[in-house]
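To whoever picks this up:

The parser on our side crashed when reading a file containing two proteins. I've narrowed it down to the boundary between the first structure block and the second sequence. Both blocks are reproduced below exactly, byte for byte. First block:
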Amino acid sequence: MTDFTVIYSKRRTICAEIGPDGSVKIRAPQNMRKRDIQEFVRMNEARIVRARQKQAARAQEAGRKTLTAEEIAQLKEKARDFIPARVKYFSEQMGLFPSAVKISSAVRRFGSCSAKNSLNFSYRLMLYPQEAVDYVIVHELAHIVHRNHGKEFYALISRYLPDYKQRIALLRR
């Protein structure tokens, strides 16, 4: 396998990462030699190929195509424009103001709220209807005052999005 990108960082271990477009990124410690990286790829080639196939099958099964690098770039740009504007709108409505709003490439979660009230949103939200995106934004803003998913948390969400349960269903499609 020769089609991979190496990303050096301050990490201590090496790992392979499969991008949404099927690209392979090898994350390696800054001081790791190229031949050690190539050896890692050779030793893990079967696992990498299986992971790529599994990801493509999962995307196909879900009725979604694997996104190209260009499509991902467009979604990220759209998210950078759209999400902060919606956060500002709902922040003013709710009187809750995050310390920062960031767009990420998160795969397993649509959004998160840090202990310092910084909100993070996945660019993948742009694949969903605006009603669903608005729900995730209100959900994360609600975490500024309610750090759990208790009754008060959902009461706050319901105050601004009475149909929040239908909006959650949009995210599960």
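<<boundary where parser fails>>
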Amino acid sequence: MSDEEDPESMDEEDLESMDEKDPMCDAILVTQSMFGGDDYMKMQAKVTFEEELKKEQLEVEHVRGEVYVGNRRGLDLAGMKAKLSAHESKICFLEACVQDLKTNAEDLKNNVKALTGRVSVLSIAAKEYKWVRQRSLSTFKRDHLPDTMEQSDYDIIRTVNQIVHEGDVVVDAFLYEEGGRRDTHTFEELYGLHPAIVRTIEHPETLNILNLHAQVRAHKHKTGTEEFFQKFAAFIQAFSESSMNPNYLTSEPRNATCIAYWALHNCPKYKDGGG
């Protein structure tokens, strides 16, 4: 807006668009000039600007809250700038949406992983429950229909009795979910860790060691060695201090958890020399 223009002569729309702190608008004039050296092009530009002002009527246009005055080609350029700014804003918005989608996809991936693990556990539990029901039927035959007993019934009873007295840390841990068992001390005495912690462990070697401890601890006819229980406690301590890092058997150099694992794995399990 030129210094000679009187704001009082502006219409209401122009006045509303004028910034109180910076009562200015952009004046844009676009035309074509001759190509050449720098000085020549500057001189030709002045000439063509003057000619453009003489032959073409200037217009005022409002673009996205800004006021522009100029010839038609200049105002078209101002519109392109506004469109570019709008596209940039839209791109930023879409990039944020993409990031949200990536986050949601990662959450869904973790949920699927957790559900897959849960299905696996439930499948194991269902399989073992079938064995328990098999034993129930065979036990009924033994107690009430002894003449119908077959060798397979005795095999089922013997096999399931062995399964029941062995450790199954994964299935047992899910017995302590909300609404389940509360005697977590019993679980920790048997497996060495809280059931909530065990539900986060997927490392087979670690789960096998926990089951081994339960088997030795609960054995009806054998007694575990003091060395075995001491080395198990050392393993649990090292594993806990490593923030339950499951890579202890493959990490280099050998770490405290790895050393404790092999020391426990190789020591005598029972006082009578068994295991």
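After patching the parser it read the second block fine. The beta strands are 26-28, 59-63, 66-70. The CA atoms of residues 156 and 162 lie 10 Å apart.
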